Amino acid sequence: MAKGKVGKTVGSLGDYLKEQRVSARLSLRQLADQAGVSNPYLSQIERGLRKPSAEVLQQIAKALRISAEQLYIRAGILSPDDGVGGSVELAIVSDTGLTERQKQSLLDVYASFLALNAADSADEDSSTGSSAEADPVAEVREDAPTNTETDSDAVANEG
């Protein structure tokens, strides 16, 4: 079956889009016109053959008068488990100053940082050593002068 080419999330996205389009009583052609995409492209999205960009999803959401965030989740751009509504991801995908390729690169880097931090957190939980040794921020804080040191240096420089 052709749906398997792009992935499960896109298939459910296509089904969801079709359901929303039908409930809005719009033809495929009408929605395509309102969203500013071609009729065949929208058809391919609905059938799960194409994965639309965040920008296209935003246009479709606007035309259907539904939440773009919901489409991002269904497309796999956002995770529903992202805590505060995926604010970082939403900021990236809604930034008009970035190209789609740049947006995807930032999303990939962000996801890799989250995965790395989760793995580091799991490692710290399983080890008995101090986590401050592996924390560069903690090392910087330890080396930073305290307020009393800074104040005494300022007094010494005044004299």
UniProtKB/TrEMBL annotation:
Region Disordered, annotated ranges: 120-159
PROSITE patterns in the record: HTH_CROC1
Molecular-function annotations in GO: DNA binding; DNA-binding transcription factor activity
UniProt-listed InterPro entries: Cro/C1-type_HTH, Lambda_DNA-bd_dom_sf, TransReg_Diox_bact_type
Keywords of the record: DNA-binding
Signal sequence, renumbered to the chain: none
Entry's Gene Ontology cellular component terms: cytosol
Pfam families to which the protein is assigned, alphabetical: HTH_3
Domain of life: Bacteria
Domain HTH cro/C1-type: from-to ranges: 17-71
Annotated protein name in UniProt: Helix-turn-helix transcriptional regulator
Organism: Nocardioides albidus
